[in-house]
Q: What sequence folds into this?
């Protein structure tokens, strides 16, 4: 009797445990997987896309996205994205946004990455001007002009005349290396305004330009003063001061200017030399030792010195 009761209780407990487990699983599944009505479909990248590439159907796919979190600028149809140029690199499963694509009909390549109102200008560089190849697409540079305003063929001053300029391309590369390796190229393409493009073209003719690599997070414009060659040798870079103009001469009717003669120099008397100190002659002394038996005696004599020019 006791054994049968225990089996019945065990079976009832098992049934209750299974029911609780099934209910919990269903509740968690419904919470973690929203229903079809709670999500929508947006266009994402089926594979990575580089700058300037034209998107094709093979590069795109649809993926679910929660309706509660709308993504501004996203697309719901693949046909709205096909044929658009990429202006920002994309990775796998990244949502396709309007801000990452060129305008409809703009095509691909470098021209698709140029914003409205901006211009792309190429600059000839070498290993020195291009900072040993570290000027790559996406980096920011300052442009330094060295030359002479008088156009005499000499380098008299240097000036940073363009700041925080974006590099669009290095050679024919519109993307930088994934490992940050330098790119040795002969031309870099800069993104500038139309006014700055005129300055850059004129600087390339009348002087020598050099690129100064800067931190992309540093957006401050310093506008440093021009440096002249004289300042490198300790002289002031400012223009030399003019000598003071002479005082005007007195003038008037019937008054003749009188010439002011300088005062006569004062002649200082020449001091007489001091008389020489008298020479004291110490008389020479002679010592004579007398020995008489066991007694010894020393006798000192002074030697007489005759005066110069004296007689016998």
A:
């Amino acid at each position: 009797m006791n054994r049968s009761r225990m089996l019945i209780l065990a079976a009832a407990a098992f049934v209750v445990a299974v029911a609780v487990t099934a209910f919990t699983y269903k509740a968690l599944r419904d919470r973690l997987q929203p229903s079809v009505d709670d999500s929508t479909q947006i266009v994402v990248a089926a594979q990575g896309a580089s700058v300037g590439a034209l998107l094709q159907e093979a590069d795109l796919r649809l993926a679910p996205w929660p309706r509660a979190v709308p993504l501004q600028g996203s697309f719901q149809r693949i046909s709205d994205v096909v044929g658009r140029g990429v202006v920002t690199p994309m990775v796998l499963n990244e949502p396709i946004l309007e801000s990452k694509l060129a305008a409809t009909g703009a095509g691909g390549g470098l021209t698709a990455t140029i914003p409205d109102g901006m211009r792309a200008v190429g600059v000839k560089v070498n290993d020195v001007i291009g900072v040993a190849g570290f000027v790559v697409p996406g980096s920011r540079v300052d442009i330094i002009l060295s030359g002479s305003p008088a156009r005499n063929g000499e380098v008299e001053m240097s000036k940073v005349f363009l700041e925080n300029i974006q590099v669009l391309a290095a050679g024919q590369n519109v993307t930088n290396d994934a490992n940050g390796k330098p790119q040795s190229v002969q031309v870099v393409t800069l993104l500038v305004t139309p006014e700055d493009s005129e300055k850059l073209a004129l600087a390339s003719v009348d002087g020598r330009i050099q690129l100064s690599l800067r931190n992309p997070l540093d957006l401050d414009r310093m506008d440093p003063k021009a440096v002249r060659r004289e300042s490198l040798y300790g002289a002031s870079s400012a223009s030399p001061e003019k000598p003071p103009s002479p005082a005007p001469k007195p003038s008037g009717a019937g008054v003749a200017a009188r010439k002011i003669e300088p005062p006569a120099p004062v002649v200082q008397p020449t001091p007489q030399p001091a008389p020489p100190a008298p020479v004291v002659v110490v008389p020479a002394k002679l010592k004579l030792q007398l020995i008489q038996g066991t007694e010894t005696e020393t006798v000192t004599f002074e030697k007489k010195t005759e005066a110069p020019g004296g007689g016998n």
